[in-house]
Amino acid sequence: MTPPSPNPPFALVDIRGLHKSFGATEVLKGIDLQVGRKEVVCIIGKSGSGKSTLLRCINGLETFERGNLAVDGQALQHSDANAMRELRQQVGMIFQSFNLFPHLSAGRNVMLAPTLVKGLPREEARTRAQALLERVGLGSLFDRMPDQLSGGQQQRVAIARALAMDPTVLLCDEITSALDPELVGEVLQVVEMLANEGMTLILVTHEMAFARKVSDRVVFMHQGLIHEAGTPDEIFNRPQTPELRQFLAVLHD
């Protein structure tokens, strides 16, 4: 019988000692976070705790001063344009604002990156875009322009567009916060489907019931640090620190 390996399983996203400042303000004060393949991690915390900045560091939109960040074993190197291009193909990101190209139909928004970045033939990209729109429940809306879609539909197109690059990990930054309450469910349903299919997801969210339902792990950020992390049951039912207890109490008021 072989002895158990002393090393933890390989982390798909491996963040160690990450520091990030804007001017004199230190926003991330030494973040350590490892996310395994197929893991769903929800990041919660007050505004200004560094949640969105952390996501933007993972996909290379922000540079950081100190620390290490690797995705699938590849270190993030801002000085290497090729390495950054490869990273961005691996890391999909969905934002609060849908960021669709207004002059392109839903289907063409989904087709754009695979044809431009990956050189996918047009017909193949079209077939793939159609399949992805069907996957997010919008199969009949390929030719609709963004301004003809509801906010929830636009955000689902944005999810399909991110998936078109076949990312290894998908980052979601408060993707329901710009939506009317009645449209939130349709977007979260798609994300839950991705979680069930084994997509690696890192989500910044204020939807606590959703975080409790889909997360393997919940991370509470406070003042630029990971203050607590654990299973949904541990975080929501047995918070260890006054800061997390206060954060959850405010939500229940």
Task: Please state the average pLDDT score.
Answer: 91
Low-confidence stretches: 1-7
Query: Globular, elongated, flat, extended or rod-shaped: what is the shape?
Result: globular
The DSSP helix count reads 9
Distance between the termini: 54 Å
Structural class: alpha/beta
Overall radius of gyration: 19 Å
How many strand units? 10
What can be said about the biggest beta sheet? 6 strands, mixed
Order of helices and strands: EEEHEEHEHHHEHEHEEHH
Helix content: 25-40%
**How are the strands of the largest sheet arranged?**
6-7-8-3-9-10
What fraction of the residues are assigned to beta strands by DSSP? Answer: 15-25%
Question: Can you describe this structure?
Answer:
The chain is of the alpha/beta class and 253 residues long. The chain is built from nine helices and ten strands. The strands form two sheets. The protein has a six-stranded mixed β-sheet, sandwiched between helices. A four-stranded antiparallel β-sheet has the order 2-1-4-5, with helices on one face. The N and C termini lie far apart (54 Å). 39% of the residues are buried.
